Structures are given as C-alpha cells and as structure tokens.
Amino acid sequence: MSEDKACQSCSTNSCSSQGKRADESMEEFQERQQLAHRLGQIRHKIIVMSGKGGVGKSTVAVNLAVSLSLAGKKVGLLDVDIHGPSIPTLLNLEKQTAEIGHNVIQPISVSDNLKVMSIGFLLPSDSQAVIWRGPLKMSVIKQFLKDVEWGELDYLIIDSPPGTGDEPLSVCQLIEDADGAIIVTTPQKVSLADVKKSVNFCHILNLPILGVVENMSGFVCPECGKQVDVFKSGGGEKLANAFSVPFLGRIPIDPDIVHSCDDGKPYVYHYSHTETSKAFGRVIAPILEMDRKNKELPVIKNKEDGKMRIAMPVAQGQLCLHFGHSEEFAFFDVENGQIKGKQMLTPPPHAPGVIPKWVHEQGATIVIAGGMGARAVSLFEQQGVHVIVGAPGHTPEEIVAAYLNGTLETGANVCDH
Predict the structure, then answer these.
(1) Domains in the chain with CATH codes
(2) Would you give the distance in Å from CA 44 to the centre of its chain?
(3) 271 to each of 1, 75, 200, 267, 381, how far by Cα in Å?
(4) Whose CA, among 10, 149, 276, 327, lies 20 to 30 Å from 43?
C-alpha cells in the first residue's frame, strides 16, 4: 500500500479516508486515518448533552452506559468535560491513572463490557485546574478519539459539558457519523430555555436528536407512594413534542442517586429494583433498539439436528409482560421448525440470578419475554440463554409459532422488572 493510501479502517474504495486530500499535510492525513480506524470499530456513537449545568447529565450518561453494558453490550464511556470531569468520581475511579504507550492510551476497564476515559485519569490530582483555550481542548478530544484503544464497541457514550461550546462542537466535527444526541433537562422553565439552544445546536450541525430525558421529574415518597413534583413535571416532554423529537422518559428524584454518586456506585446496578432504576431501563429501550433494527430474530439451535428449547414467562395463560411477575414458565421443544412438545413449570422464588440459572438447567437456549430489566438480560446471556424482549401479550403457542415462522413482531421493552 502506498504511503498516502494506508487506511486500515475499511477496504471500501470510496472511503474518504483512503486517499490524502490536497489541502492536508501527511501528518494530518495520518491522524485522519487513525481516527477513522478507531471510530470504524464502534457501531454507535451517542453524545449526551444539556443546555445548562446541574441537570444530572453526567449521572444520566453513567447510568446509560452501565445499563447498556448490563444488557450485554460492549460500551465505552468518554468524558470530554475538560474543566470539570465528573465521570471518575461517579464510578469511584478517582485514583486510577491511564496507561500511555506509543500513540496508544489504555482506557480504564470497569467491567468486561465497560471501558472509561476521562481527562481526570491524566491529571496529577483531582484538584488540578485545566486552563485551556479552544484549540487545546480540540486537540485532547481528538487524541481521546484516535489514540484511546477502545477496541470493538457496540456503543460509545460521550458525556459532554453543559452548553454548546468547544467540546460538543469538537466532537461533532470529529465524529462525522455520530448516531445522535441525547439531551438532558429538568422540568423547570429556566432549564428548558437553555435546552432549546442544544436542540438548535443539533439542527445547525445536522446531528440527529435521539431524544430528550427529563431528569429530576417528581419525587415518589417511599412511604406512601405519593408523587410530589418538586421541579414541576412534563416540561421535557412538552419541549420534545414542540420540536418533534422523541421523548425518552422521566427520571424521578431519588435520594439514593445522591448516595450512589458520592460513593461511586452505579445507581442502576446497586438499586436495580427501584422505580427510578426502572425509569432508566425505559430510557435505554430505544437505544437498544438501534442495535436490533433491521436484524432478523435469530433461530438458535441446541444441536445440529435442529432441536431447541424455548422458554416463556406466563401469567393467566398468556405471555407475562412483566418478567418478574410470571406465575409459570412454558417450555417448548422444537425440532426442524415444528413444535414437538410443551411443558409448564413453576419457577423458583424470584431473586437475582436464580431464574436465569434455572431456565438454563431446563435446557432452554431462548427466552421470549414482554419486558425484562437490563441486569436480568445480562444474567440470562451469561447462562447462554438468548433473550428476545418486546413480544406481545398473546398465548405462548401463538408467540412461538410466529417466532418460528419469522413473523413475530417485537416492540419496546415494556418493563424493567
């Protein structure tokens, strides 16, 4: 390969990174190639932004990334808030230092499915002030995107600082194929006014808006269950409707979010059964659908002879839309695309990790459900059981028949139990 045609990100002749542009130096060309190579290994790039500070944007970004990783996705979380990086604190990584080699930066691994990078991992102390102008910030963001060894990722979640300044602008200019932005707001009027600027920013840069999240939307009393709208409620949804962009959902106020942030413990993992955690689950459902669109539902076989076993949570004779409320499980034995037998079994008492293991022990390799939390999906996948969510509330026989015929239509994950 010639010196000016050495892109390793793909082999497509029409790729813009294949050839050197007339107006760029060899160094600029090589940087662009390296950037294309790194980004080419990432399927979806999502920017989390807000019009103003104090709306919980970084908290949403962290819990979004953790939720996706718990759903079995390979996720990178990039903190491009140069002046006030908070991701290390939110994940209890303040004392971590990124390893830097020859043109390579190793991200910090939180789990097998989640890697993180922040300017905070490169500073001598968490009290170190970063006093940079725009060009320097652009340079370090470019370095994060082209030099961090993310590997292959399903999602890269980018937490940008509040507003529409250098950092989100640099990200949009460097990532030409970004899937879009998630805009975080709180319900009150002062926040919504600033969010309109973020919406207009996306429109000007032709960046799709994946949706609006209304954070701190009401407080549900843990004692009586009554909701109090501390900062009002519904403003984010009205804003989304006004601009004809998706509304991803409301995240209620929960004091445990404050504790989890201070302790560096991801909220959706440590408080998975709360209403607020379930709200996060509903927010990520459309994001997970990005990975499922245009994919045929897989027919997974146990053996080469075409046999497999399908499990389904059932309540009152129909698919249980709430996975955690299932009374029984229906197990269908399938051979060469035909149902050969059915068995109804009562599951053990519902507890984290118990039912996935039990379903695996019954020989099933697929579970079809209406709704299931990200953590439960991850536990099933760890047992080698593939999960299909969003199935309609029909009889188990109808659903299995539709699945085997390739006509099963799935919707959003209706529940996060």
Answers:
(1) 8-40 (no CATH), 41-292 (3.40.50.300), 307-405 (3.30.420.130)
(2) 9
(3) 53, 21, 35, 6, 21
(4) 276
Closest CA to 175 of 201, 206, 199: 206
Share of the chain above pLDDT 90, in %: 14
Is the pTM higher than 0.70? The answer reads no
Token pair of 394 as six digits: 């029909």
Report residues of the chain scoring pLDDT below 50: 1-7, 9-16, 131-132, 294-304, 416-417
Tens-place pLDDT, residues 32-68 = 788 888 888 888 899 998 877 778 788 889 888 888 8
Beta carbons of 270 and 282 less than 8 angstroms apart: no
Biggest CA pair distance of the chain: 71
Distance CA 314, CA 73 (A): 27
- Say how far apart CA 372 and CA 393 lie, in whole Å: 14
Measured in whole angstroms, the distance separating CA 130 from the mean position of its chain's CA atoms is 29
